[in-house]
Amino acid sequence: MQLNVNRNRTLWLSLSSGFIALGLIAMAISWATIGSPLRLGIDFTGGTLLQMRFPSAQVVPDPAKVREALEKRDLANSIIQKSGTEEILIRTKPLGQQERLALQDELKKDLGAFSLERVETVGPTLGRELFTNGILALLLAFLGITVYISFRFQADYAIFALVALVHDVLVTMGFFAILGLVFKTEVDSLFVVALLTIIGFSVNDTVVVYDRIRENLKFISRKKAFREIVDESVNQTLARSINTSVTALLTLFALFIFGGQTVHDFALALIVGFVSGTYSSIFNASILLTWWRERKGAKTQTMEV
After folding, report:
1. Domain boundary pick from 75, 101, 122
2. Left if phi > 0, otherwise alpha if psi is -120 to 50, otherwise beta: which for 260?
3. What's the pLDDT at 126?
4. Which domain holds residue 89?
5. Which among 245, 266, 242, 244 has a CA at the least distance from the CA of 255?
6. How many CA atoms lie within 13 A of 97 on its CB side?
7. Residue 15 and residue 98 in one domain
8. Which of 5, 173, 247, 269 lies at a C-alpha separation of 20 to 30 Å from 257?
9. Any domain includes 4
10. For residue range 197-255, what is the model confidence (pLDDT) as tens digits?
11. Contact 132, 43 (CB under 8 A)
């Protein structure tokens, strides 16, 4: 069975537009409520993070009770979040070592015994620097990929490859914006690493499709229309794209399930981004290139007439 991507391109583009629109709405709501399109973690905002694990035989205290304990040390504005069935995450303002140790003793008196699985402290200045560097890294990656594809193929190939990459980044960001609103999921510096990895994975898939289109144009351009060549090229690379994605996703799902809280969101971001990257490489990048070439060809013929 052959996949005719250009025949149903309105459907493929509508699906992409719908996912992006939902994400943008979530980011707008997030911006209006918490001041940023995503719920930023401690890496970007600064503060101290405590991840407490309670014994399995002990009842995990209610977040309201945890907040009462924090109020005694003027930390009532801290963010409290349950993680699984045995852990609680607390994010406070930046605390020194003595302040943190005093807080731990206070919490043990009020909440019972627990073990600290993770302790992180980031100053607000470092947080802003990490955020700025993360944005800069994404922009440089976009620029480098655009230049590379322009030299290897043509300018229009590069433009639509860039559109596909922006699509993947927006889908992933939108997904986490929704998670941030519903489950208070935060993004940290690993999220930026995940976005850069998604860009690399997606552009590799797109280059494979584009390379096959270019090869087919050399041999059958006089026999078939451009959209037929694109459809044929997509079908020739479809099995490879799907097999590569499934192999990567199997590893990522294992990491998501068994990797622990530290890499849980990182693996989830990669899963969403890799699925989006495979979709955009097969559908968006190819059909947008077809649309542009057909529009360009029609305009040329009109001018000649």
Report:
1. 122
2. left
3. 62
4. 48-122
5. 266
6. 0
7. no
8. 173
9. no
10. 999 999 998 999 999 998 888 876 567 788 888 999 999 999 888 999 999 999 999 99
11. no
- From CA 146, how far away is CA 258, in angstroms rounded? 36
Q: Looking at residues 100-110, what average pLDDT do you find?
A: 85
Give the C-alpha separation, 97 to 160, whole Å. 51
What tokens does 63 get? 């977040």
- One-letter amino acid identity for 153? F
C-alpha distances out from residue 33 to 75, 171, 174, 184, 251, Å: 21, 21, 16, 12, 36
Tell me the mean pLDDT in the region 5-26. Answer: 92
